[in-house]
Amino acid sequence: MPAGSARQHTYVRRLVGSTFNYGLGKFAPKIIRFLLTFVFTRILSPEQYGFIDLSSKFGDFLTTPMKLGVPGAITRFYFDFSEGPSLKDYVTTVAWFVGLCTMTVGLVALVISPWLLGHFIPGLPYLPFAVLAIVSAMLVCMTELQERLVQAREQSGYAARLYLGRASIAIVLAVLFVAGFRWGAAGMLGAEVVSYLALALLAIRYLRPEVSGRFRLPMLRSSLAYGMAMLPGDFAGSLTPLVTQAILADAQSVSAVGMLGVAGRFAQPLIILAYAFQTAFNPIYFSIRKEATPGGMQRLAVTARNVWALAIFGGVGTALLGPWVIVLMTPSSFHAAGPLLPIYVVFFLGMVIQSLFAPEIYYSKQTWWVPVVAYSGSAVNIAVTVLTVHRFGATGVAWAMASERVATALIFAVISMRLVMIPHQWFNLARITLCGAAAAAAVFWIPRNGGIAELGIGTLGIAAFPIVLWMTGDPSIREGLHLARRIWARESQP
User: Fold this and answer.
1) What count of Cα atoms within 13 Å lies in the side-chain half-sphere of residue 488?
2) Hey, which of 24, 231, 410, 444 has its CA 20 to 30 A from 6?
3) What distances in angstroms separate CA 70 from CA 139, 153, 219, 225, one per listed residue?
4) How far apart are CA 64 and CA 71, in angstroms?
5) Is the dihedral of CA 46, 121, 381, 386 positive or negative?
6) Which residues of the chain register pLDDT less than 70?
7) Residues with Cβ < 8 Å from 183, sequence gap 6 or more?
8) What pLDDT sits at residue 15?
């Protein structure tokens, strides 16, 4: 095998293997949760789902001041240190700082939330939901350092075991608490708290050898400078969903928030896959950029084309068949979530674009762009929410979320292309997009009744996408089949 082909094959195996492991760890539990949604929607009401989602968004917001962006610096500064005493000092420094911030913010939130929740997050009770959200946020932050180190070291197999273990605990306890003890939404949140407690204990064990170094203030300053540049963006990213859901709860009802959340759960397989790819792609992108070779730039361009083709295929499938699944498998009180699912596909595609282009911002250490982009996206989200929520309810908020993600992704793409010239195959990318849009257009003619006609039209639309790509000469499918045959031939050899 020529050296260039061998390097490309190794690169593909790294990317696919890491994406599979990260995806397995987060995707497989989501599939189980997705299947359990058919059970929980018969036990929980839309309002209880609304409590769960408001609590989740509140906890996500709290993690931002708890971390102050410092753990995010690990995946970049890890490559500036070598394994050994210097890295131990760095990890020790970050661990002490994040631990102190987490405890301080968590205790303050527990004290002041009873007086502030009613004014800022209508519909979210302090007991038990806000308290569970605060405790969960503290435990999540305790696991962040381990997760970043595992990602930087490309220990995707270990990450998969961690995610699967935590999720298994959460799923078993959720079934016990919700279906067995009938604790409702509080049982669902309680199961998450216990599972994150188990993961935090494992993180302490993993980090014990790593935190044997010394606290070094200069190392903290450099990570703070890196993280604080992203902090306004992190605040915007975590605060905006909380604000828009609070607006929806106030303008419509907590049940409308729950309906939006149920649609999001059916989109979770796609979204988790996008996160898995992003987690796997970032360190690989950094290593290729460090090579700074024409061959490396070409590999990034080919990756972007193939990933975009897979993303469009997954999006078409979800948009065409997802609403049918919701109508078929859930009680009538949740059928209104069906039309929201194709909007989440637009959100997912924005995530994929951002995953492909945003790493350059972090590699170039141009992190001051992050808050600029985040604020721009938040402004789009809140503006669309305010303009549409009273008339369209959850549908308007879903489009606001999708608009934010697409806007931020496009801004990241423009900035990235100004920082580095990657020979993207724009014609092929446009052809993939147009073929996907044509296949997904069938969604406008599908009857929303969960019947055979909806299933048949959706299946035809999904099959049409790769067929049209093949007929129009797109190389993605041909290269994929060629790679699959080569792997099959090699594995078949004795």
Assistant:
1) 6
2) 24
3) 16, 18, 11, 9
4) 11
5) positive
6) 1-31, 33, 82-83, 442-450, 483-484, 486-494
7) 177, 190
8) 55
Express each pLDDT in 317-358 by its tens digit.
999 889 888 988 899 999 999 999 999 999 999 999 999 999
* Residues in Cβ contact with 455 at an 8 Å cutoff, skipping those fewer than 6 apart: 321, 324
Identity of the amino acid at 24: L
Q: Is 318 exposed, middle or buried, given 0-12, 13-18 or 19+ CB atoms closer than 10 A? A: buried
* Tokens standing for residue 47: 């309002």
| pLDDT score recorded for residue 168 | 87
Contact by Cβ (8 Å): 233, 375: yes
Query: What confidence tens digit (pLDDT) does each residue in 266-318 have?
Result: 998 888 888 878 877 888 898 888 887 888 899 999 989 999 999 999 999 99
DSSP-assigned letter for residue 213: S
Residues composing the chain = 494
Place of tokens 């064990």: 205
Indicate if the alpha-carbon torsion angle 450, 43, 251, 120 is positive or negative. negative
pLDDT of residue 273: 81
First to last CA, the chain: 18
> What's the angle, vertex CA 51, arms to CA 49 and CA 53, rounded to 5?
70
CA angle 482, 488, 491 (to 5 degrees): 140
DSSP 423: -
d(CA 120, CA 100): 26
Residues 230, 71: contact at Cβ < 8 Å?
Answer: no
Predicted pLDDT at 457 = 79
**What's the DSSP call for residue 474?**
-
- The predicted pLDDT at position 30 comes to 65
Q: What 3-state class would DSSP assign to 421?
A: coil
pLDDT at 430: 95
Total-model pTM:
0.83
Question: What distance in Å separates the CA atoms of residue 320 and residue 460, rounded to the nearest whole number?
Answer: 9
Rounded to whole angstroms, the Cα distance separating 304 from 359 reads: 13
Other beta carbons less than 10 A from residue 1's beta carbon: 10
Distances (CA, A) of 164 to 11, 78, 209, 255, 455: 25, 25, 24, 30, 32
For residue 284, the model assigns a pLDDT of: 83
